[in-house]
C-alpha cells in the first residue's frame, strides 16, 4: 500500500471516529468537527511527506493549511466573543 492510499484511509477512519464520537456524546457542532478534522489532516500530512524532497502537491497543501489556520482563528475568536 502506498503512502497516499494509507493517508486517505487514515483520514477517512479519523473522520468516522470523530463523527461517531460526536453523536455518542450528543455534541454536534460543525466548528468542533472542523477543528478535529484539521488536526487530523495536519498530523497525517506530517507523517506522509518525504524527508528529502518536496512533491509538487505538498506546496499547494500548505496553502490549505494556512486557510485552515485562519478559519480556526476565526472560530476561536467567535467562540470567545460569545462567552463574553
Protein model, in words:
With 84 residues, this protein is an all-alpha fold. It has one domain (3-83). Helices cover 82% and strands 0% of the residues. It is built from three helices and no strands. The radius of gyration is 15 Å and the shape is flat. The mean pLDDT is 82.
Key terms:
single chain, 84 residues, mainly alpha, 3 helices, 0% strand
Percent of residues in helices comes to: over 70%
Q: How many beta-strand runs?
A: 0
- Strand and helix order: HHH
Strand content: under 5%
What structural class do the secondary elements suggest? mainly alpha
- What does the largest sheet look like? none
From the N-terminal CA to the C-terminal CA, the straight-line distance is: 50 Å
> What is the domain tally?
1
**Rg, Cα atoms, Å:** 15 Å
Average per-residue pLDDT, rounded, comes to 82
Instruction: Label the overall shape.
Output: flat
Uncertain ranges:
none
Summarize the entry for a quick read:
This protein is mainly α and 84 residues long. The protein has helices at 3-24, 30-48, 56-83.
